[in-house]
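Researcher: We're teaching a course module on how sequence relates to structure. For the next exercise, students receive a sequence and then see the predicted structure as tokens, so they can try to spot secondary structure elements on their own. Here is the exercise chain.
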Amino acid sequence: MSSMDSLRTTSALGQAISKDTGVDSHRTARAIRLWPAIVIVAFFWIFHFSADYVEMTMFFRFISRFGMYAIVILSFLVWWMGFSRIEWKDRWLGLGALLGGAIIAGLLEDPKSLGLMGLAGAFFAAFPFVLTAWTAWIAVCKGLATAPKPRRIGLCAVILGCLGFFDLVRWEGLDGGQHSGFAWRWSQTAEDRFLASHTANARQNAPAQTLQIQPGDWREFRGPARDNRIYGVKLATDWQRQPPKLLWRHPVGPAWSSVIVVDGKLFTQEQRGKQNEAVVCYDAQTGEEIWAHEDATRFEEPLSGAGPRSTPTFASGRIYSLGGTGTLDCLDAATGKPFWSLDVVKDGGAEIPTGQAGTPHQWGYSNSPLVVDGKVIVFAGGGHEKGLLAYSADSGERIWEADAGKDGYSSPQLISVGGQMQVLMHSDQGLSGVDPATGRQAWTCPNKGMVLPITQPQPVGDSQFLAQAENGIQLVSVSRSSDGWSAERKWESGAIKVSLADYVVHNGSAYGFSDGIFCCMDLESGKRRWKGGRYGHGQVLLLADQPLLFVMSESGECVLIAPDEKKLNELTRFQAIEGKTWNHPVIAHGKPYARNAEEMACYDLPAAAPEVVIPSLQQ
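Model: And here is the predicted structure for the students to work with:
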């Protein structure tokens, strides 16, 4: 037999064996290059679990997570199609299964995942599991020399199975750390459960009366000065020995609104069904609903859910509220009867704040109305210098408008600068002071970089203000000379990476949340003194007379902290409500009111023991 005949015989024998076993003979000649896929998948999971320990602002965390997902997906596909050494039939099959499965999964997704953004959230959440299972399957096939047909069937099953699983769940947005929330698609949403249990109040026609502000009331967002300071309240600091007493607790419609408490009544805002955005009045002592005023509108976006974001304001017997889509209402506080209503979007020639270019209705209106000297002032984000609008508190007639930017979620607040009262406003344009009588801008400090403010500026003395910055926090100093007002940035710091969580000022320090970690910062230098306490993206109040820091964690825990420049000094804690809690807590008449997008509760906290004064001995 010639050498040529021997080669033909060997080749034929190899093809016969290959045909009988189902194994491709040329696969052994060119081994699959699997290590890049393992590196890519391992890199993703390392990033996924370590990213929580790297401090960054909420915006940069959002961008970094989605950017990393995109890089990992693209890298994996480049490996698969270009460098894997997999048969081309398998490469195209895998790519087709991925694209086709994603399209099918998108068509079958739960409608309550809220469209394209919800699909993107579920899609990005599914992909790490798809790529991990994909890599594992190829490794198994390589190790066992799996036949082509089972290998291909298995590949499709792995890809479609992982994508299909996410059609069994409903994407419920992100928490402050950018982690996705899921629930089984057949389960009720918190709003569904609320609507099923809620009954129309029997006191809709409440008796006419004029509500008056009482000592200890909380009449507007973040308190009388909008600085999250409480006076006249001192609490016991051992809740294990003296546990808080639950007074009432019940479901509420979704919203990120806080509450106000005036003359024994509690007011808040809620979403109630597809077309009912409500301002609701409850009995502050019992939690019983008294009246609800509903507007035929709904605000909803996939990242943080449904419902209004702002908090009502009380003034002169009336409630002023701004809805998520821009409906400004003036209501009788006792009965809910409307006096007037208008649309700030239409009136200001504005667009609903997006927070992200090209993504309509991303965040909605989140600022709370400010009432001063018979005027209701709201941020509208309108063009032609209609960023800030002032209306007559009595009639709703527009009085003035001011240039104050087009995007932002901070609220206007009344402050004193050098003895002159001004309206302080922080937006994408910058921090500015406006004359409340005329709307004339006294001064402005433009933002450095891209800033979409969510938190309130904090006064530091009579002429300095802490405000959110692109990568943390900044100190702005305002002065007045013969040439007029001027403002300059004293420093910018990453010591507190401000996002949606609040901060307070006490004795030369700022205490607040830096990317979910509680910390203390020196106001003089902008340097961090300490950090500790993972309370998530929560909120904080200052009990100025004691002093104490009252923290509401993102998970619904109430925590007491003694302000200390050297270390975290946590005193006590208890679980107040369940679920993601971004809403600002309120303490009125010594009672904390906590709410989130699912429920609301009131507790009776033990008061601090009265101080014993020992008289001095007289000689």
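Model: If you want an answer key for the exercise: The chain is about 25% helix and 30% strand. Residues 22 and 148 are 6 Å apart (CA to CA).
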